[in-house]
Amino acid sequence: MKIRAYAKVNLALDVVRKREDGYHDLEMIMAPITLHDLIYIEKIDQGIEITSNTNRMPTDERNIMYKVAQLLIERYHIPYGIKIHIYKHIPTQAGLAGGSSDGAAVLKAMNQMFRLNLSLETLAEIGKEVGADIPFCIYEKMAFVKGIGEQLEFINQDFHCYMLLVKPKKGVSTKKSFGMLDLKKLCIHLF
């Protein structure tokens, strides 16, 4: 089975507050874009195998695709394994949800391949356990997104534009960038 995993952009992003669990509550407007990874998935007797056209991503249990595949196999007692080959086009550490879109694509493909008949809502709930952007990537629709990425209000309006994406060789870790954020320095007090 072949499936495309579409990247996303944040058209707006506001950090609302830091949560007790270390994450940040956000308010964002996200939109899917045509840039995508191409993923081939096939059923195998057992296990999870991942190969790629790049060595810039892990292909073991650290990979989001591995995590969502393992979660589905265990939760729904799937008696098979899967082999995944990914042609990576979405740059890593670019804020484009490359890993999350890959995870969402694997969830959708396995849902179809193993005839699980899970709704998009259920797939989004499962994906949320692995990555905050996966619910958005399941639906692939422009949305106002809140919380850590799990609360979606869809924007039912066409949005067509051309965009130039520039990604230097060095990336930015989402965890590291939010960890360095000091909201006290960013707040303007109007007293």
Can you characterise this structure?
This protein is of the alpha+beta class and 191 residues long. The protein has one domain: Ribosomal Protein S5, domain 2 (2-Layer Sandwich), CATH 3.30.230.10. It is 28% helix and 31% strand. It has helices spanning 64-75, 98-113, 120-128, 134-139, 174-179, 183-186, and strands spanning 2-18, 24-44, 48-52, 81-87, 143-147, 151-154. Strands 1, 2, 3, 4, 5 and 6 form a 6-stranded mixed β-sheet that branches. A hairpin with a 3-residue loop joins strand 5 and strand 6 (151-154). The longest helix has 16 residues, at 98-113. The radius of gyration is 17 Å and the shape is globular. The N and C termini lie far apart (60 Å). The model has no long low-confidence stretch (mean pLDDT 89).
List keywords for this structure.
191 residues; Ribosomal Protein S5, domain 2; alpha+beta; 6 strands
